[in-house]
Design goal:
Chain lengths: 226, 226
DNA sequence: CCCTGTAATTGAACATGTTCAAATTGAACT
DNA sequence: AGTTCAATTTGAACATGTTCAATTACAGGG
């Protein structure tokens, strides 16, 4: 479950086969979409029997999961670099999103297969246990986006704000996936407007006066997560 | 597509068969879940051949859609009655939700099949064209919940607020569907807390001072809906 | 009461995700 | 080289949503 098609040296022959299957799948997914691609096609394209695909991946979904996992790993250095570019919170949040969208651009449609499931039981849901690790690592980046910015966050709000921002991000990404406007212009507009609102709210939330509001929001969040 | 299993007189034999299939399906869905129920089972249970089910319903999904449609019709009088019970906005909003949750309670799990799809292209998505009619009718109830309350809504905000409230409702319903706590206690808590926040925000939004904020929110919404 | 055409019904066939028992491979050991 | 055994590979078989050509039921007209 660890190897990826872009690792420099697929050590064993097994790894090489796994990589070939993953590559074939991603190629077909990009060209004809997730639903439209058959496990038999993937196997044929990779030059193996149908069953072999299932020897390496538990299911068709699991192939997407493997891609998602690999993506997260490859994104890490890009995000690190982005976080070094600015101290301004709005810039930092925009960068987090931009880097991801640019990276996933070629597979935008495919991401639908990942994001289309709200059911937290479904393996491909962004809220499922299967995607937990990736999710938590992602939330950490919002923690860092905040920490590295010039903006102060109230102590009681600190543990929760990153998760709130992550949720906003997921909403925007979802919108982006299904955005049919020319080169996703609408998403671009939405991101800019959302950032303005979010950053303003974050700043506001630090006011001592806002403590009761923070408490209510935190209370709400804890009820949700409990 | 119009008849339902609970209509008093299924006029024709055809209607009667259709109703029998829908009933059998709903019964099986309730007992073993949507995914776990087979079209062959449904047909057998209804005493027809597999193909017959497809003569009356375009797909397995379409059966759920038919149920959803029927539900909306049956809910209408209940919601009307609820709207006559109080002038207080919080009460009215709570009632809208409570009536629906109580109605759907026996099929809570099944609703997952309806709500689990974020893809607006998917027939069962709450955002799909197939569910548009039901959706718009539902949004109207929020319009009425506002209109019949003692609370004033700023002119510029009036066309948009119902949709915002509807979205909040969908979020709560989604939470409810997957709420595994004892008799969905967590949802109950979440509803109460959410209502407090939402009603407070609605009241706040009417302040003349808030006009710029309303503009930003409206702008955001229009970007999303465009 | 028979004829005719539409509506309804049937069950086999198909496509595709998945499983599985059997065959093959290949490395390590003797 | 021969043996052994786990890893790999195979392709047929299975389950299930869906399609479809063929058949039957039945209402209305003669």
């Amino acid at each position: 479950m660890e190897k990826s098609s872009t690792d420099v040296r697929p050590k064993t022959k097994s790894d090489e086969t796994r990589a070939r299957i993953l590559d074939a799948a991603m190629d077909l997914f990009r060209r004809q979409g997730f639903e439209e691609t058959t496990m038999r096609e993937i196997a044929t394209e990779a030059g193996v029997a149908t069953g072999a695909a299932y020897y390496y991946f538990d299911s068709k979904d699991a192939i997407v999961l493997a891609f998602y996992d690999q993506a997260q790993k490859e994104l890490q250095p890009l995000l690190d670099k982005a976080m070094a570019a600015s101290k301004d919170l709005k810039d930092r949040l925009r960068l987090l999103l931009e880097v991801k969208l640019r990276y996933f651009e070629p597979n935008r449609r495919l991401l639908g297969a990942l994001a289309a499931h709200a059911d937290p039981e479904h393996p491909l849901s962004p809220f499922s246990p299967q995607t937990r690790e990736v999710r938590e690592r992602d939330i950490e980046y919002f923690q860092r986006a905040l920490a590295g910015s010039s903006i102060h966050v109230a102590r009681d709000f600190e543990p929760h704000l990153p998760r709130i921002l992550w949720m906003c991000q997921m909403g925007l990404i979802l919108f982006w996936i299904y955005d049919r406007s020319q080169s996703q212009k609408r998403t671009q507009a939405l991101v800019e407007k959302s950032l303005a609102i979010v950053v303003r709210l974050v700043k506001l939330s630090d006011l001592p006066l806002m403590k009761p509001v923070r408490r209510i929001v935190i209370d709400l969040l804890e009820t949700m997560m409990a």
